[in-house]
Amino acid sequence: MESENLPVALVTGAARGIGKGVAASLLRAGWSVVLTDVDEPAGQAAAEKLARLGTVEFIPMDVTDEASVMACIERIEGDFGQLDGLVNNAGMADPDNGPIEQLSLEAWNRKLGTNLTGAFLVAKHCIPMLRETGGAIVNIASTRAVQSEAHTEAYAASKGGLVALTHALAVSLGPTIRVNAVSPGWIDTRDNAQQQSDPLRAVDHQQHAVGRVGQPRDIGALVVFLLGPAAGFVTGQNLVADGGMTRQMIYVE
């Protein structure tokens, strides 16, 4: 597939939500984008919808399956011949695992396997192409890496691990490859119909210093910056994008 000499980015877990929003932001910024997801019909539908914005291709991939990851990277090399940016976004989004006493080892491993080990596997196999282009990696972590609700141990551990993986990779892969993380707070990933039928409450927005809940495009803007040359002196960092929610003291009245 021709990318018209545009930089090429891989965005995992891009069938919906933050991943899809990040892909849209990159396309608008002039990138060619490869979307991957374990949900093939949703991923293909996302690629078809985003195609109006630029060069986009969907490749099914399961980040927990190393053979699937390797096959995807090989296809990117064959179709585009280069890779300039990686966005590790794929993950299990539901943070609630129930009481820790009832959390099975299988459920724990499944969440860490997707959210943390998956990012490791994709990064590992993208490194050769990223070295050739002097590319960059952005890992999508979470503010839950530094604060928690009850019964979210597996999710918090996976995102905290992803932040640690970020600075470890930055040191190991520099100076050729930069690696950063973005930790979103509350991002409304519902589609327009869902947002209109079940609008957020005023108090939901008031918990944020900026006065609103976040949107996928807010994360997309940060990713575009971190993957681009303007962030050439930024690596190993975790940028929090939460509208100030983790800095605003909230008291229940």
UniProtKB/TrEMBL annotation:
- Position of the signal peptide: none
Question: Which is a Pfam family this sequence falls into?
Answer: adh_short_C2
Q: Does the keyword Oxidoreductase apply?
A: yes
Q: Which GO terms describe its molecular function?
A: oxidoreductase activity
Task: Tell me which UniProt keywords the record has, alphabetically.
Answer: Oxidoreductase
Whether Methyltransferase counts among this entry's keywords is: no
What family does this chain come from, according to its entry? Belongs to the short-chain dehydrogenases/reductases (SDR) family.
Name assigned to this protein: Oxidoreductase
Q: Which organism is it from?
A: Halopseudomonas pelagia
